[in-house]
Input
Amino acid sequence: MADPSGFLKHSRRTPARRPVPLRLRDWREVYQPFSEKDSRDQAARCMDCGVPFCHNGCPLGNLIPEWNELARLGRWEDAADRLHATNNFPEFTGRLCPAPCEASCVLGIGDEPVAIKLLEQQIADTAIESGGLTPRPAAVATGRTVAVVGSGPAGLAAAQQLARAGHAVTVFERDGRVGGLMRYGIPEFKMDSAVLDRRLAQLAAEGVRFITHCEVGVDLAVEDLRAGFDAILLATGATVARELDVEGRHLGGIHLAMEYLVQANKVVEGALERAPIDAAGKHVVIIGGGDTGADCYGTALRQGAASVTQLDIHARPPETRDPSTPWPTYPLMLRMSAAHEEGGERVFGVNSTSFEGADGAVTGLHLVSGTRIPGGFVPDEGTDAHLPADLVLLALGFTGPETTGLLDGLGVGLTKRGLIGRGDDYQTDVPGVFVAGDAGRGQSLIVWAIAEGRSAAAGIDGYLSEGSQLPNPLAPTAVALR
Output
């Protein structure tokens, strides 16, 4: 059983971040190593609740109290087995997930929650470093073939599950390297690409085939895709960015966040010598207060921006859980990423009204303070302000998947939100064509993408095999079966 007094002996601790002046000089992950003893002490804070609400907070249904207890005992290999039972890529979620499980932690009612996200990463990394990424190829091939279009977390999770079920899986990626936004949308200071590469090597050893520089519907005809595979999984993501329709949007120096981040990541990996969009010496304004905006924030500082300002249309959240989001819901509260302590400024409760420029290039923007309401923004009188800017990055989220080419060619139906429609088995209205991740769900978290990939894999396996034994974390009966 768990240590019944562990949470009384140990306060919550997480790894320290490297000093700001040092980490701004490189692209390495910002966190310093955390000792095994400290990790075991943090695991001891888990109370092994009779009703573990952390399960409900995690869409994967991670067996959190079980692997916390195994980590407390130093049984890292066993802990990794329990962790991998529900999560294909815990080293990804341990770095990138905002941890809704911690928001649901029972200890969090009157104390700081268990450091679940930290322990997830520690268990995964410890197991991997000791040789715990042994490939698990299927013992028997089914002779059935599956195409996965898109190599983000949903596509990769589904590919691994299907390959382990014995199907021949081919992943198509239109970019030059596999990984989707984990490769090019996540800066190296949040997750080193080596973390992704070592997992991809495991998938390849399990029989997953990767084809890059191939945009299905352009480089490969949709008809050929349908003819060559027994089932297709669309895991293309929701890559159509939300725009800002204000005067001056056409000026040079105003870019979508992903245009900027992808180029920056390609420079870091050596694919580009210099990014066409570079923040060096510029006054950078980021419009959008979410994680993508924070990624732009840290990237611009490392590129040597003269100033960085991040604008958020929402009011500044409180320092602690807002009463409107009581436990065990995900709390409304101020969140500080590592980038926010490295310099720059955050401005809340403002809306951009227009851009101004000279010689076709942006030189500044006008904004107004006010209140965000459903469907709009109410400005406060007399709060007009101006910010100098010669690089503006729009980090306003995404509206849905691209439809030209692949989706139009397949003829899949879309929802009113512009997402790909699907049933409970993740199959679209085109037989044999399935969808997982943001393309069907809308912009969401990495943990939801992995859960959707696993559930879609169960749907595909059932379609190909007339019944599936693969886990389905998002099935209506999943809670009863865990």
